[in-house]
Amino acid sequence: MSELIIKFPEELFLLDLETTGLDPIENSIHEISCKQLVSEACWYTDKFRARTGTLVCEKATTVNGVDWTCLENRGRSWMEGMAFFFGWIIELREEVGKPIVFTGINVGQFDLDFLNQAWILLNGETKVPWTHRVLDLHSIIYLMAIAKGSETPAGGFSTSKLYDFYGLAPEPIPHNAKQGVEYEVELLTSALVEIQSFYKAQEKPCSNSNDLGIDFDLIAMSLRVDVLKVEEAFKRASDYSKRGIGS
């Protein structure tokens, strides 16, 4: 087993945001959840008011279940909420000794844009404590589909198709950031098991997980999840390889 596949670096964090819309300038972050993958205890979650003067889109209200009245009733302001989160990230950046790397769904084309904009507004500079390179779950799973010779959906993987790829139910609506991270951990677990089984299959063709020699306990320990979740993820991955997308 390759340790590189199952042992996460300290700088890798799962990130999920809830916002009032899709535009990082006109809209605002109002909820953050961020988890260091090597530590169950290192998990930041916070809700706060939207940035003053920003818009709340109707679609965002539907997706995350909040409106302007709900946001206004929160105790912490946007400035306070973002300042606390940035302080947490800066402290971890110093502990790790490397820029933070974010992973998640749409993290590079959505979450990071909002974080960068918030950092500029709050700090007046563009030098951030995280790297601009991200580990996007869309890319990981798309490459796995190619490597396996599986059919890839037209237009690439939508978020719902990412979960369908591993037989998982997508995150229910309304979304919240903490729930989003929990679901993405499940998805990442499934992807890791898929990669493990793929690598092992190249070394020794076989028919079941025991023959592959996959250490479910070690993967579960690395991800800080129950070993049963890893076993279930492997079963879903195996079932998918037999049925393909949409069958």
Strand content: 5-15%
Low-confidence stretches: 1-5, 243-247
Mean pLDDT: 83
Give the CA-based shape.
Answer: globular
The first-level CATH class name of the largest domain: Alpha Beta
CATH fold node name of the largest domain: Nucleotidyltransferase, domain 5
- The proportion of residues forming helix, as a percent range, comes to 40-55%
**What order do the SSEs take from the amino end to the carboxyl end, as H and E?**
HEEEHHHEHEHHHHHH
What's the story with the biggest beta sheet? 5 strands, mixed
Q: Total number of β-strand segments? A: 5
CATH H-level superfamily of the largest domain: Ribonuclease H-like superfamily/Ribonuclease H
Q: What CATH architecture of the largest domain do you see?
A: 2-Layer Sandwich
Span between termini: 31 Å
Strand order, sheet with most strands = 3-2-1-4-5
Helices and strands: which structural class? alpha/beta
Return Rg in Å.
19 Å
Number of helices: 11
